[in-house]
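Before relying on records like the one below, remember that each one covers exactly one chain. Contacts with other chains, cofactors or solvent are not represented anywhere in the record.
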Amino acid sequence: MKNKKPLTSMFAEAFRGLQQNLRTLALYVALIVSLHSGLLIANLEFIEPVKETLDPLHLNLYKFSTTILTALCWACIQSICYARFGHNIDRPFWKVDGDWEALRRFFKLWFLLDLGALTLFSVPDALLSATGDETLALAFFYFALAVAILAAPFGTAVMFNGKFGREEVKAAATTLVNQLPRVFVIMILTYCVAMLLSQLLIAETMTPWLSPLVYIVDAYFDCLIFCCIWHLCMVDRDEDTEDIDFDF
């Protein structure tokens, strides 16, 4: 029978995983904050002063370029750091031979997930500008948020299976279904954190230069959620009666 362990063990194991991988956690947080800070500086210094007079085509091109760049950098960071987490948490069963191998296996997975989420989050503003319908824009925002929240568990479960392929996607979906009650708890936690951070980012009393502090918290929770899902994947594997070869 699935899910015999108490729910608290999932978070306990996740926190333990972070504590045992503080260097990887620090690397992930530093890279994510650097990425967002660089984009923030570029926006404040070069775009905001001329935004009102900038040609719409050029502005859209800038937004498109930053979306692609963000997805590329984000996918590299996730592929490398998450692989390091997975290797250290689940050794000797799960292993990847170095950062380049992690990029080869998982970059495409995280790039597609990140690009999809970033693209969806750009739609509400476009809808609001085109139609003026705030209800429709808000509804699509929550849809984009739901997709983004689901993307992290899905990507983690696919990683756990060793590579990004059709069979691995099926196995990931099976794992998430098997552990659905706990996955749902993680998704609710992710939603609460996302809403809190989004409110902090748009708060009128918050200056743009405090945004990196929000991204520090956001990056930490990224890693915490990853470790939670990784632990669930390990539990699901251990509860499975079939022999699975993880020496990929």
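Helices lie at 7-19, 22-47, 56-89, 99-131, 134-160, 166-178, 180-202, 211-239.
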